Amino acid sequence: MEFETLVQTRKSVRGFKKQPVSRATVEEIIEVAKRAPSSMNTQPWHVHVLTGEPLEEVRRRNMEEMVAGAKAKRDIVSHGEYQGVHRGRQVDIAKKLFGAMGIARDDKPMRQDWVLRGFRQFDAPVSLVLAYDRILDPGAVCHFDLGALCYGIVLAAWDRGLGSVINGQGIMRSDIVREVANIPEDQVIMTCVAMGYPDDSFAANAVRSDREANGDFVRYVGFAD
């Protein structure tokens, strides 16, 4: 599939089939994605691929801790709650998703169930936990590199018929992820990619987020036209 078509058609998938994803398929995806840009070829990334019982334990314990009121315990520094225009965009996509799923504004149980799906990594059959070398902190360059790898994974997966959602909720308790997956302390857990074959009957999978017009965030400097 051509790159432009990949980018235009790819969307976040929040409902997955129970069909398993083979290790060979994931290896193929990572083989492609690791060609992502990396600052001076430092390649600071690590990928921990979870499925089966280990993944079930991570999502069960992550969900139980968060439902019980435990504080998030992520390795990376959080900006806190979104405000202003960023909050507005967050609310807009939530409205679209709840509308597609038929979740009313005052339906607290169903809204809570949606949040729990995020903590469970949307019940995807595979989770790729992305981490980077702790020795590179503090600094945004390695974060940029990991983002490039992450997007490469998502596009390579989509090209092979797999959907994914980049999901920080799924690792809100990074200590649990580290324990279950035996991730070394010298790696910082940044995010995870929940992955599987899309369930086309799941209404939220048809939702596409809005994007601002180029004129709202792009400046051209020095062009004659």
From TrEMBL:
Assigned keywords, A-Z: Oxidoreductase
Statement: the UniProt record of this protein carries the keyword tRNA-binding: no
Species lineage: Bacteria, Pseudomonadati, Pseudomonadota, Alphaproteobacteria, Hyphomicrobiales
InterPro entries per UniProt: Nitroreductase, Nitroreductase-like
Residues spanning the membrane: none
Superkingdom of origin organism: Bacteria
Coiled coil: none
One GO MF term attached to the UniProt entry: oxidoreductase activity
Protein known as: Nitroreductase
Species this chain originates from: Bradyrhizobium macuxiense
Family: Belongs to the nitroreductase family.
Residue ranges occupied by any Nitroreductase domain in the UniProt entry: 8-197
